Design the sequence.
């Protein structure tokens, strides 16, 4: 089994196939579960949140790097002008690891055009074999029966308004995840916060922050067939625009223990982004633009108290192509990777890679929908998905981002 991980994609004007992440064994007392992360890294509630600084774009569409970010780039031997002209494509692995805490994400207007977004949905090349987890040291319920993913009714802006796709670049190429617009307690009704998986923003223990993170709410809003997307204008593919991350936080557990197949960081595989529109401020927040945002429930209920969870995402591995949104609804069970780590939720679902980071929604105490998890890992045979329970560590990540922008 493996977690769903971000997949390599085409650079502009040239397509490449998405790759599956390498297999990583997660030890237990008598058995191991090989997992592959879906796409992002979480922040530790008990640990200090690790941020990423970013920049904005000028009204003329050209990249504009604030002096503080420009100085930071220079301090690490990066020429800001060269960066916007393609220097970001150069991934010195030693430097990437060493400077993981100094990630910067200046807006490069037009980088995520229609072709590049569509090309970022290639499928994995090499599936990873499933392995038995019956001897897991923690509490693991029987594997759920597969639940067939259902297409979200179009337009997505009416039926899954908070959901969208997250695009970013890695040393392996362009990648994709799914993400969700969530409420910001510091700005009621005007949130610019996005929830996703930790492995969608940071590579974990053996890597650093990804680059060019951008969120597209209601991607392919009218569910156009893939063939028609070849000629569709950007306004159709990204009806609510492209929103660049100007800050990102994930758990220290993910940063120190996460890996390409999940690793010890999987139970903490979540992240929060603060975003800003690529074309400059229009006076409207992301929440106002899409029309809604989900509250986040950090008092994660036990599985027995949840009748149904609904996971939403943009699966990209076969039989999906990453261009449309899907959902699965199921009563969750428990999955324990390590006895010392929090137990994860698990649901039956046939969604594949690319759905990582997508929100899991359940009815709250008030009966209204709330985000309670996100897609993190899943088996190669696409029968189920697992996501972290949200507690104090997750709340620390969320509060850290909200407070940082409370006065802005």
Sequence:
């Amino acid at each position: 089994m493996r977690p769903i991980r971000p997949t390599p994609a085409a650079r502009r004007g040239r397509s490449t196939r998405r790759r599956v992440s390498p297999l990583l064994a997660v030890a237990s007392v008598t058995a191991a579960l090989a997992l592959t992360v879906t796409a992002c890294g979480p922040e530790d509630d008990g640990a200090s949140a690790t941020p990423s600084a970013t920049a904005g774009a000028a009204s003329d569409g050209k990249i504009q790097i604030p002096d503080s970010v420009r100085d930071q780039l220079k301090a690490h031997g990066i020429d800001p002008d060269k960066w916007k002209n393609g220097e970001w494509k150069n991934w010195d692995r030693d430097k990437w690891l060493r400077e993981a805490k100094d990630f910067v994400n200046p807006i490069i207007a037009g980088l995520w055009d229609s072709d590049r977004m569509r090309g970022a949905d290639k499928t994995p090349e090499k599936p990873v074999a499933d392995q038995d987890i019956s001897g897991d040291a923690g509490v693991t319920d029987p594997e759920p029966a597969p639940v067939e993913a259902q297409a979200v009714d179009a337009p997505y802006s009416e039926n899954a308004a908070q959901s969208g796709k997250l695009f970013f670049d890695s040393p392996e190429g362009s990648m994709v995840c799914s993400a969700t617009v969530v409420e910001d307690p510091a700005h009621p009704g005007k949130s610019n916060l996005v929830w996703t998986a930790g492995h969608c923003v940071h590579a974990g223990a053996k890597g650093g922050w990804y680059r060019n993170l951008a969120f597209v709410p209601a991607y392919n809003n009218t569910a156009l067939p893939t063939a028609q997307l070849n000629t569709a204008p950007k306004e159709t593919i990204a009806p609510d625009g492209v929103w660049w991350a100007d800050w990102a936080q994930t758990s220290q557990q993910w940063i120190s223990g996460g890996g390409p197949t999940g690793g010890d960081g999987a139970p903490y595989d979540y992240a929060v982004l603060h975003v800003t529109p690529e074309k400059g401020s229009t006076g409207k927040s992301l929440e106002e633009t899409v029309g809604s945002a989900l509250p986040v429930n950090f008092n994660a209920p036990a599985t027995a108290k949840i009748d149904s969870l609904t996971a939403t995402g943009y699966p990209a591995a076969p039989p999906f192509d990453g261009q449309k949104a899907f959902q699965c609804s199921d009563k969750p069970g428990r999955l324990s990777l390590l006895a010392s780590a929090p137990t994860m939720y698990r649901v039956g679902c046939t969604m594949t890679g690319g759905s990582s980071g997508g929100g899991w929604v359940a009815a709250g105490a008030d009966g209204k929908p709330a985000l309670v998890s996100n897609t993190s890992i899943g088996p190669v045979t696409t029968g189920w998905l697992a996501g972290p329970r949200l507690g104090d560590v997750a709340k620390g990540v969320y509060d850290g981002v909200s407070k940082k922008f409370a006065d802005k």
In short: Confidence is low (pLDDT under 50) at residues 5-63, 122-136. The first helix runs from residue 67 to 75. The radius of gyration is 19 Å.
